[in-house]
Amino acid sequence: MLLDFSTLSKSAVYHTLTQVVIPRPVAWVLSEHENGELNLAPFSYFAPVCSEPPLIMISVGYKPDGTPKDTCVNIQERGHFVVHIASSDLAGAMTQTSAVLPAGESEVSKSGLETTDFEGFSLPRVLGPSVAMACTCYKIDTIGPGNQNLIFGQVERVWVDDQVVEVSDSGRINIGAKAIDPLGRMGGGEYSTLGEIIDIPRPK
What we know:
By secondary structure, the chain is α+β, with helices and mostly antiparallel strands. 17% of the residues lie in helices and 36% in strands. The radius of gyration is 18 Å and the shape is globular.
């Protein structure tokens, strides 16, 4: 089968891409509403894109009614957010936070999740995930006829649970992928977890 994207609808393109670019990491993004309430939502159009400066990118669309998603509005207006990497035991809670709520309502409160202070940062982090990245907005690019928002966040600091960190004899920090147990996004409502990890040395 050959799929010509120029003949497909936006929806068909989306569903095709999300079924062939797999698995995708999920950014579980906490941001702040104008009223001080905390927004929390998952996004799988997400990747690290630069090391100097340290940037991650999240692609954010629109609500079903065509209005901007709260995550984008909050980051654009207040400029700070926290990206979590959720583990498999948080799959249900993470998926619950993808529900569309009225602007200003908190997915954190509604889902029963708890937060804790993120040392040295203006926002808290969610309790549960082993990784949280404190980010400030580097820039937002709006692309395409659908006005998709590409949010570039500069990672200011990373919190990693001590339980998933090992320090080698040489002092190098190694973060255990198996210990993080990250969710991977597939197509539709499917998620994946880590199976066998293959370590293949790169050629010299």
